Every structure is written in C-alpha cells, then in structure tokens.
C-alpha cells in the first residue's frame, strides 16, 4: 500500500492536491547565510528537493538574509557549493529574501492601513513585562491605539532614519490575551542602522523573521513551506501574515523534527564555537559534520542521501546513531572503490630464499567483489613491509598470523613461513625473516596445503611513505555531549591521531583530492583535499571496516 509507506508530509501534499488546495508543488530551502551547512541541513535540503522532484514541482534556493548582523558572502558561496555537491539542483530558482524588502515594506504599510499594525515606543524591557507569561495574559501597549495616519507617519520616519536602534518598532495588532505568546502583538519591524551585504545602506529598518518568512514564501509561490518543529507555535502567526497581507494562493507551513546525531556536534552555533575556539581546524575539519567537513572526510553525496532516507521524516524528536552514517558510507564505497595495501605501523619482512634484487609484478584484482574495477600490477620482492600486529613472538591461542614456525599467505602472493626475527635494543621487533614456497603463488591453483591466516604487505623497494589521519568522534561517547557541571563539551582527547610513517603500495599515482580507497583489512580512506601532495600523500580515515551497527 503506497499511501502507508509515504511519510506524513507526502500524505499532506497528496491530500492538498486531491482537494484542489494546490495544483502543483513548490518547495524551498531557506538558509540564513550565517555559517556553514551541516548534516541537519542536508536533511532539509534533500527533503525539500526530493518532494519537488517526486511531484514534478519546483525547488527554490533562497537565502534568508533579512538579518544583517551575522550574514556574510563567504557563507553564501559555501552554502551554494554544498547544496550543489549534494545534488539539489535549483536551476533558475535562486533567490535572496533581501530582494523583497520593498514588498515587505508595502505589506507593513498595508497592515497599518487596515488597522492591523502599530508603531510602539515601549522599550525592550517594558515590552517583555507587557507580554505576560504562559499562564498570565499580556497587557496592551499604551501606543496600541494610535491612529492609522500617525502610524503611517511614524513608520515612514522609522524608514527614513529618524529614530535610533530600539527607539521604535512596528508591531502587529493581534491579541495580547492569546494563549499563544507569538500572537501577542509580535514585532514586525525594528530599527537597525546597519549595512546589509546585499542592500547596503538603503534600509535602516529590517523585518523580523516571523513577518518576513511567510511573505518570502508567498511572493515566490511556495506551496509547502517545510520547517523544523520549533516553528510549530509560530504557524498561527505565519497564517495571520499571509491572510492579512491578502496573498492569493497562500503557502502552508508543515513542521518536522530536526535531525540530531549522537556523539557529534550539530547546530550551527555550536560548530561555530568549536571553530572560533580553535578546537577544530576550521569549518571543514574532518571531525565535524558540516557538509564541507563530511566531504573532506570522504563522505559521498550518495552516502548522505542513503542516510537521510534511512532516517525518515517524522514529528518525533530523536537522535540517530552516528554509526548509521558510517554504515551508509561503507555500503556506498564497498563495491565502488579499489582495495589497496597500506601498512600503518610497518616492520620489515625479509624472504630469505627469494632472489636478491629481483622484482616480479603480481596481478592484483582491484575489488574481488566487483570485477569491473579490473586489475593492477603490484611489485613484489625480497623485502616487504607488514603490520607490526601481524607478527607475535609468543602468540595467544587462535592467533593465525605470523609467529615463529607458522605459515601464512601474503595476500595476492605466496605462502611464507616465519623462521626468525630481529629486535632493536628496546626489545621492539624490527624484522621478521621468512622463507617462501614458489609453488603457492596466488592464482596458480595450488591446493597442496592450507593456511589459516592471510596478511597484507607493501614492497619495501617501491613503497611510498604516507601520512594517515585517524579520526574518532569529537565527543566522548561515554560521558555524553555536555559536561553536567559547567555545560562545556565533553571532548574526546583522541579524536585525531596522526601517523607519520605509514607505507603504501606504489599504486596511488594520479590519485587526487577526495579520491577514496579501501585499505584492506582496515578501513576506507580518502586523500585529504588540503594537505596531500603527490610527494606527500595524506589520507583521512573515513571509517574503519569494523562495525557494531546492525540494520
Ligand atoms: P542551526 O539550528 O544549526 O543553527 P538554523 O536552523 O539556524 O540551524 P537556518 O539557516 O536557519 O539554520 O536553517 C535552514 C533550514 O534548515 C531551516 O529550514 C531549518 O529548519 C533547517 N534545519 C536546520 N537544522 C536542521 C536539522 N538539524 N535537521 C533538519 N533541518 C534543519
Ligand atoms: Mg539560525
Ligand atoms: Mg533557523
């Protein structure tokens, strides 16, 4: 049953179309350009864009830039880049709310003329007192009964710069006794002598969000104005504005629950603080969940879409496990990416009976689960690097990797048997000596005997040194996001570990920013877009192969 599998917003839209409330669908994504977008915004973008696609409608990209204090062009550019990267195509439909300032002003004048708005001289503090509380009705402002003529003159004077910031505001005349505080004569316009990034010094009065937003939607012909739950109580005011301003075919607001993730910092202002306090290295630090950070970390638009789809849309507030996002990127990369050999903590392996100075080139499948990715040649020789943890002097039970006397397979190559090892003065193993059996070459069809362990390796003579950055969640999972005593973030001190001397096979030539790979037996990694160079490869760990996440 299709109707049942649709989310509640789709059901509302279906109903509106069936009842003829609207004959098409037009949605929008309206960010304020005051920071970078994060994974929560991705939900809103993909939801709005997805609905427009699904119903053959239109998707608008609109900068909600009506508050000049915090807005910057830098953010306008980053937001556009992020939305394009996510694949939400706004086509011709790019808008700036500040382009509607004239129309908003006209709407305010209309309300004054209808006796639905008045200029108020109460101070901010007085206004708070007059507003009342959840249990107490508010009191009417003494300026509420000014004549239309006086209000028109004063509002014009506000616009013309006659008053200082905070001296006068324009308020809606609704109902000071309303149980909904948003309806108690809310402010529509305030005086703010500030330069706006788009309109410069043309205006010294700016509309409030609750007045501006419905007008923006109505001007653009938005049908379904989808926003997050905290605006539910503002919906009566939204409807009041579009009704009293007498827009035809008014839009309707529908609210859904924000996306929250465990163990990471969502929320623009919190991410901003981490950046400003220098706790992370900029807005695209790979430990953040800004879109820019996810991109740099190696997440793909496909993985984010899969994640958002899995989250679903609802009105119930909840937190989603970060491990689900990791599941999605693993799923996306699994078949698409080559599986390479990289050794993060190298020790030498010497094959004593392999001819010195000889190199052979082995055919290695790029991805055993996807033949389409083809093969590559990997050089093999007498000296290799292997992971320190793949050798043990005294192995515990069920350890099937290298130890004295044990035989393992070198992935894509031969069986080798450990004959001896060397240690440095500190007792750390430096070199493992083996012999190999030429009969056992991978792909030769050898079936004479079996080994229980397979380890990967990198040819020493051809290895490339690399820097590898291992990330963990920025937040300490055990303690929760915020410190109970002082409200500070419970940061994980090990959220970044840098490995300076990893060794990778020589097959990364030509790989560039954002390219990603599986490092076999380890995880998925991508080339860091800021710091990697052909002669100094830097990899970010996207996600490890292991997971406790179950679908
Ligand atoms: P933040 O709360 O992180 O500061 P914001 O709401 O201030 O974000 P805006 O630029 O105002 O950011 O938001 C643009 C759109 O993105 C809004 O429609 C908002 O409801 C939506 N949005 C913001 N955060 C989330 C979230 N966590 N989940 C879903 N949608 C979100
Ligand atoms: Mg905001
Ligand atoms: Mg907001």
Write the layout of secondary structure elements.
Blueprint: H1 2-5, H2 8-18, E1 26-29, H3 39-54, E2 58-63, H4 73-86, E3 94-96, H5 101-113, E4 117-120, H6 124-131, H7 148-159, E5 169-172, E6 187-191, E7 205-207, H8 209-220, E8 224-228, H9 235-244, E9 252-256, E10 259-261, H10 268-276, H11 291-297, H12 301-311, E11 318-320, H13 322-334, E12 339-340, E13 342-343, E14 346-351, E15 360-365, E16 375-380, E17 383-387, E18 407-410, E19 415-423, E20 429-437, E21 454-455, E22 458-459, E23 464-471, E24 496-504, E25 516-519, E26 523-527, E27 537-544
Parallel strand pairs: 1-2, 2-3, 8-9, 10-11, 12-25, 14-20, 18-21, 23-27
Antiparallel strand pairs: 4-5, 5-6, 6-7, 13-24, 14-17, 15-16, 17-22, 18-19, 19-20, 23-24, 25-26, 26-27
The structure holds adenosine-5'-triphosphate (ATP) and magnesium ion (2 copies).
Pfam families: tRNA-synt_1c, tRNA-synt_1c_C, tRNA-synt_1c_C2
Binding site for L-glutamine: 64, 209
InterPro entries: aa-tRNA-synth_I_CS, Gln-tRNA-synth, Gln/Glu-tRNA_Ligase, Gln_tRNA_ligase_bac, Glu/Gln-tRNA-synth, Glu/Gln-tRNA-synth_Ib_cat-dom, Glu/Gln-tRNA-synth_Ib_codon-bd, Glu_tRNA_lig_a-bdl
As for the CATH topology of the largest domain, it is Rossmann fold
Give me the number of helical elements. Answer: 13
What is the topology, as strand order, of the major beta sheet? 12-25-26-27-23-24-13
Query: Quick one: how many beta strands?
Result: 27
Largest sheet: 7 strands, mixed
| CATH homologous superfamily assignment of the largest domain | HUPs
Average pLDDT over all residues: 95
CATH architecture of the largest domain: 3-Layer(aba) Sandwich
Shape: elongated
In total, the number of domains comes to 3
Distance between the termini: 23 Å
Name of the top-level CATH class of the largest domain: Alpha Beta
Gyration radius, rounded: 31 Å
β-strand percent reads 15-25%
Subunit structure: Monomer.
Organism: Ruminococcus turbiniformis
Subcellular location: Cytoplasm
Keywords: Aminoacyl-tRNA synthetase, ATP-binding, Cytoplasm, Ligase, Nucleotide-binding, Protein biosynthesis
């Amino acid at each position: 049953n299709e109707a049942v599998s649709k989310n509640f917003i789709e059901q509302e839209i279906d109903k509106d179309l069936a009842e003829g409330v609207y004959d098409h669908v037009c949605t929008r994504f309206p960010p304020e350009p005051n920071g970078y977008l994060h994974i929560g915004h991705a939900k809103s973008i993909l939801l709005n864009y997805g609905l427009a696609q699904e119903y053959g409608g239109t998707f608008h990209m609109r900068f909600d830039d009506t508050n000049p204090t915090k807005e910057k062009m830098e953010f306008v550019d980053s937001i556009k880049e992020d939305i394009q990267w996510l694949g939400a195509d706004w086509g011709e439909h790019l808008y700036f709310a500040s382009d509607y300032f004239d129309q908003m002003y006209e709407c305010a004048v209309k309300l004054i003329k209808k006796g639905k708005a008045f200029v108020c001289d109460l101070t901010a503090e007085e206004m708070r007192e007059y507003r009342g509380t959840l249990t107490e009705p508010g009191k009417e402002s003494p300026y509420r009964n000014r004549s239309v003529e006086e209000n028109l003159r004063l509002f014009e004077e506000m616009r013309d710069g006659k008053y200082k910031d905070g001296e006068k505001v324009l308020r809606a005349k609704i109902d000071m006794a309303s149980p909904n505080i948003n309806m108690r004569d809310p402010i529509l316009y305030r005086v703010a002598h500030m330069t706006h990034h788009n309109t410069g010094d043309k205006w010294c009065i700016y509309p409030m969000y609750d007045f501006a937003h419905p007008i923006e939607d109505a001007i653009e012909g938005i049908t379904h104005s989808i926003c997050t739950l905290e605006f539910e109580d503002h919906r009566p005011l939204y409807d009041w504005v579009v009704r009293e301003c007498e827009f035809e075919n008014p839009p309707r607001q529908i609210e859904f629950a924000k996306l929250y993730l465990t163990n990471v910092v969502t929320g623009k202002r919190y991410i901003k603080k981490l950046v400003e306090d220098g706790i992370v290295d900029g807005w695209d630090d790979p430990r953040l969940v800004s879109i820019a950070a996810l991109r740099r970390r190696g997440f793909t638009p496909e993985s984010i879409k899969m994640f958002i789809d899995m989250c679903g849309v609802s009105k119930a507030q909840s937190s989603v496990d970060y491990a689900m996002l990791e599941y999605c990127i693993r799923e996306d990369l699994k078949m698409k990416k080559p599986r390479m050999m990289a050794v993060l903590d190298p020790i030498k392996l010497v094959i004593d009976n392999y001819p010195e100075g000889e190199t052979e080139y082995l055919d290695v499948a790029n991805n055993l689960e996807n033949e389409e990715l083809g093969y590559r040649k990997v050089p093999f020789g007498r000296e290799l690097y292997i992971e320190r943890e793949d050798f043990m002097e005294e192995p515990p039970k069920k350890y099937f990797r290298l130890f004295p006397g044990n035989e393992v397979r070198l992935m894509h190559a031969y069986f080798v048997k450990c004959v001896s090892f060397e240690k440095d003065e500190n007792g750390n193993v430096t070199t493992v000596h083996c012999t190999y059996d030429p009969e056992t070459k991978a792909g030769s069809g050898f079936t004479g005997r079996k080994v229980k362990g397979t380890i990967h390796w990198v040819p020493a003579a051809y290895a490339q040194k690399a820097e590898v950055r291992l990330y963990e969640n920025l937040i300490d999972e055990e303690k929760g996001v915020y410190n109970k005593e002082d409200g500070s973030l419970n940061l994980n001190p090990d959220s970044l570990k840098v490995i300076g001397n990893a060794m990778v096979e020589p097959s990364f030539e030509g790989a560039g920013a954002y390219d990603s790979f599986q490092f076999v037996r380890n995880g998925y990694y991508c080339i860091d877009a800021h710091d990697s160079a052909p002669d100094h490869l830097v990899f970010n760990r996207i996600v490890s192969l292991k997971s406790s996440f179950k679908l």
